[in-house]
């Protein structure tokens, strides 16, 4: 078992049966436990958890519909109503069993209900393990705008066990690898290269690599838990990635990681055009991303709509759009103001490269 020093919660990586999960459940012995799952984690992950941990035999289960388009307020209301029906009080416990959608939304649900219930994250997707379940960001989308409503709120604990990945579809692995690439691109060239190599065998994940990636995220968050500065680095690829994800949410429905991969490539392109990143490094990034992640066919209308969505980005200040830019693989800066004209030119450049995903 690997115990990682997180800000003020337990972060354990390894076999959950050997972790302190059972002990933690025992400390909630006389409390209600509610497990939040989506349709897939209900099918693939729930029975293992309940049959392995007898402390959960009486747990209530709340199932939400799967998919990013359901990370919305209506679903939050329905879960709050269920918690009310189950008479859940502030001393009770929520367990989020799922990918980033479940941990983001379940964390938000728990953090606001009766001014805050304790919650535990058990991520079941690769993206959840390397990113979403760690660091205390919880929230939901507002229409097409990603994560517009939310709070910083740490779980009691996060238990990361790769056995849950055995049922994860390969394309969801790739979504997780996109966020892993981001961790490499912003922090360490060798790590980036190791991830690129690992992507050749996506489902045969090396646990040591997983641990390294989790450590990168955890260390960044520890330095700046509320994202006043350094933590903004984790938003590399997200200024553009979030508008791509939001724009296509109800049509071709690109995964979070896929959208972020495209966002990273486009933000790397802007970095090169700002003479920050040299062409050779840009080409390396382009090659590794284009091999696995295709672009949708942007129409002029799509571009117009996405550019207008950029003005609502959470990172904007005084009406200016800012994003992270790379000066090398492993070196990134944040709070770079980029004009709408540059973003538009970038979308137009990638429009000419596209493979039709629609
Ligand atoms: N809070 C943060 O710091 C943070 C960071 C990055 C991403 N996110 C958020 O995370 C979300 C993306 O996470 P995600 O990719 O895990 O999305 P997700 O939770 O929607 O999971 C992706 C798909 O995999 C399925 N799935 C999950 N685990 C499975 C398993 N073990 N077996 C079979 N199917 C399984 C899900 O049901 C879903 O269909 C986005 O909402 C994004 O905004 C949050």
Structure description:
The chain is of the alpha/beta class and 358 residues long. It folds into 2 domains: 2-167, Rossmann fold; 170-351, Up-down Bundle (Dehydroquinate synthase-like, alpha domain). 45% of the residues lie in helices and 18% in strands. Strands 1-2-9-6-5-3-4 form a 7-stranded mixed β-sheet. β1 (2-5) and β2 form a beta hairpin. The longest helix is centred in the middle third of the chain and has 18 residues, at 170-187. It is globular and about 60 Å long. The mean pLDDT is 96. Nicotinamide-adenine-dinucleotide binds next to α2, α5, α6, β8 and α7.
Biggest sheet layout? 7 strands, mixed
Bound molecules: nicotinamide-adenine-dinucleotide
CATH class type of the largest domain: Mainly Alpha
**How many domains comprise the coordinates?**
2
Secondary structure category: alpha/beta
**Alpha-carbon Rg, integer:** 20 Å
The CATH homologous superfamily of the largest domain is termed Dehydroquinate synthase-like - alpha domain
Low-pLDDT runs of 5+ residues are: none
Shape: globular
How much of the residues is beta strand, in percent? 15-25%
Query: Using DSSP, what is the number of strands?
Result: 11
Question: In DSSP terms, counting alpha (H) and pi (I) runs of 4 or more, how many helices?
Answer: 14
CATH architecture of the largest domain: Up-down Bundle
Helical content stands at 40-55%
CATH topology of the largest domain: Dehydroquinate synthase-like, alpha domain
Counting copies of identical and different chains, the oligomeric state is: single chain
Give average pLDDT, whole number. 96
């Amino acid at each position: 078992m690997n115990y990682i020093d997180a800000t003020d919660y337990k972060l354990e990586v390894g076999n959950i049966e050997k972790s302190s999960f059972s002990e933690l459940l025992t400390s909630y012995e006389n409390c209600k436990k509610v497990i939040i799952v989506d349709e897939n984690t209900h099918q693939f992950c729930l029975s293992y958890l309940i049959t392995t941990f007898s402390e959960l035999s009486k747990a209530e289960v709340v199932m939400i519909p799967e998919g990013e388009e359901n990370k919305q307020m209506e679903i939050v209301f329905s879960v709050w109503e269920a918690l009310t029906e189950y008479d859940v009080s502030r001393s009770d416990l929520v367990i989020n069993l799922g990918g980033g959608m479940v941990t983001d939304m379940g964390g938000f649900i728990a953090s606001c209900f009766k001014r805050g219930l304790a919650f535990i994250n058990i991520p079941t997707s690769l993206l959840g393990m390397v990113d979403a379940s760690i660091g205390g960001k919880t929230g939901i989308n507002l229409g097409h705008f990603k994560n517009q409503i939310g709070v910083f709120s740490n779980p009691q604990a996060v238990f990361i066990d790769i056995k849950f990945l055995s049922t994860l579809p390969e394309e969801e692995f790739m979504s997780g690898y996109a966020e892993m690439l981001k961790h490499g691109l912003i922090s360490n060239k060798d790590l980036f290269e190791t991830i690129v190599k690992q992507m050749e065998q996506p489902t045969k994940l090396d646990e040591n690599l997983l641990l390294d990636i989790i450590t990168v995220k955890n260390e960044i968050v520890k330095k700046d838990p509320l994202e006043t500065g350094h933590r903004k680095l984790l938003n590399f690829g997200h200024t553009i990635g979030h508008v791509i994800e939001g724009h296509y949410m109800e049509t071709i429905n690109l995964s979070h990681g896929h959208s972020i991969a495209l966002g990273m490539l486009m933000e790397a392109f802007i970095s090169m055009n700002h003479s920050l990143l040299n062409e050779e490094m840009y080409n390396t990034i382009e090659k590794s991303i284009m091999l696995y992640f295709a672009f949708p066919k942007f129409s002029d209308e799509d571009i117009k709509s996405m550019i207008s969505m950029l003005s609502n980005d959470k990172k904007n200040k005084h009406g200016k759009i800012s994003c992270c830019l790379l000066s090398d693989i492993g070196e990134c800066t944040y709070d770079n103001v980029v004009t709408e004209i540059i973003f538009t030119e970038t979308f137009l450049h990638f429009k000419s490269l596209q493979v039709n995903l629609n």
